[in-house]
Specification:
159 residues; alpha/beta; 6-stranded mixed beta sheet; 3 helices
Length: 159
């Protein structure tokens, strides 16, 4: 069965005792991939960062959740997108993002469980749109994350 989640090993608490007996703080990171990717593919891209943070960090353990966007692309490459566009259209020129609400709901449900949210490309545009909309509408409220929001390779959302 398809699941939009690829998670690193989880723990029930934010603190745990490492092998050396020292307590470590757990930081949880929600990751939103770009168009033409998925959670598993993007995890492989960020795996060196994930491993380095856990290896080098003396006081923190990092747990990563890589969401997969809900819209499968018809490219035969196990690729997904956060919204649909007309052929030849780009996110920064689009007049509408087809299915944006479903992606927004998925991300909004996951955000409170995390300390950071990292958005890449189309995932960063999604994150920007959610933050913009939460500033402009009282019906949408995003949590203040303990760590914050991180964008990589984003354009301002058009619609």
């Amino acid at each position: 069965a398809f699941s939009p989640f690829v998670k690193s090993p989880s723990r029930d608490t934010r603190m745990f005792t490492a092998r050396d007996g020292e307590d470590k703080m757990t930081w949880r990171v929600l990751v939103l991939h770009g168009k033409q990717s998925n959670g598993s593919k993007f995890r492989r891209v960020l795996q060196p960062l994930e491993e380095a943070l856990n290896e080098k960090s003396k006081k923190h353990q990092w747990q990563w959740t890589f969401l997969t966007a809900p819209y499968e692309m018809k490219d035969g490459q196990d690729s997904y997108e956060w919204w649909t566009l007309k052929p030849g259209e780009r996110s920064f020129t689009a007049k509408e993002y087809g299915g944006f609400e479903d992606s927004a709901k998925m991300v909004i449900e996951e955000l409170p469980k995390h300390d950071f949210c990292l958005g890449h490309s189309q995932g960063a545009i999604l994150l920007t749109a959610l933050l913009r909309d939460s500033q402009n509408a009282q019906s949408l409220s995003l949590p203040t994350l303990r760590g914050g929001y991180i964008w990589n390779g984003a354009a301002w959302p058009n619609p």
